[in-house]
Amino acid sequence: MAEEPVNVNGFRELARQTLPKMYYDFFTGGAEDQYTLKENEEAFHRITIQPRILVDTSSIDLSTMVLGYSISMPVMIAPTSRHKLANPSGEIATARAASTCNTIMVLSISSTCTLEEVAACCNAVRFFQLCVYKRRDITAKLVQRAENNGYKAIVLTGDSPRHGGREADIKNKIIIPELKNVEGLLSTKIVADKGSNLDALANQTRDPSFSWEDIGWLKSITKLPILIKGLLTHEDALKALEVGAAGIIVSNHGGRQLDYCPPTISVLEEVVHAVGGKVPVFLDGGVRQGTDIFKAMALGAQAVLVGRPVLYGLAAKGENGVRRVLEMLKEELELTMALSGCSNVKEITRSHVRTKHDRQLLSLL
Fold first, then answer.
1. Residues 99-109, mean pLDDT to the nearest whole number
2. Catalytic residues (predicted)?
3. 229 annotated among ligand-binding-site residues
């Protein structure tokens, strides 16, 4: 009998033991050399925490506001696809765990449960992640369905005009189930001549021409706030402000799109400075511990999103596994805050962390 995990990384091993290799590789893998995938985690390790002592931390408040909605902790569930490959209950189990933990789930457009099924399964705040299809009418229908079913925001993924080079999926010749949200609207039965049909599907259906100029069209078809996901630079952060984004998610798609782009935590502060507090900034990529969440918040993130740990929990123990992953991260963050002298999330400041750049500057003094 496998030991109960003591942190979220323990769920990864349970998932590896549970899943067929093809599906485990699909969830864990990154693009090409997987440099960015590895650096997403490693970059957190190069940031140290500067604790304050003798502070009253007898009561710790982790509650956080996201677009006006109160959640129990600064941790949300990132949009990840095809949860039924991890567990038969799919996104419904994930959504219920998010609801139990009083946090927000961002449902992927590539979910294996429909957005209506997820909306009906529990009472929780949900966002809907969108990739724009060549068929704009289908994209518009999906946005309208999300709005009609109570989703509170659209999360536009901006870093995927084409599918990243995920070599494990090509080697495994992965065949993925049809996308439930576009059933009857778009044919997803695409057979690839070689490699994975995932590449062929994405490259034949997504609109690579969608650009900053088209955000106005997206805003015209919905009243929902639009978060833009996939930014890594000062320049793109300013463009997001120009087009009226309600928030920014610093993300490199979990290292699954462009390899050798920077780890997200290393560019978070650049984006935060560009935004200047005008809209909230969030981060995903490489978050595996409560200390990672603390570091991201110290560098300006309002909250983080977690992807793979949720899938590992789902694969290992279904809804209870997802719930336990979220609880672990919350417990670890609470402990980090207590040991760092912070009684609520607003007290986590830039002075609580030291980056490699900070250390280089100090060495020159």
1. 97
2. 253
3. yes
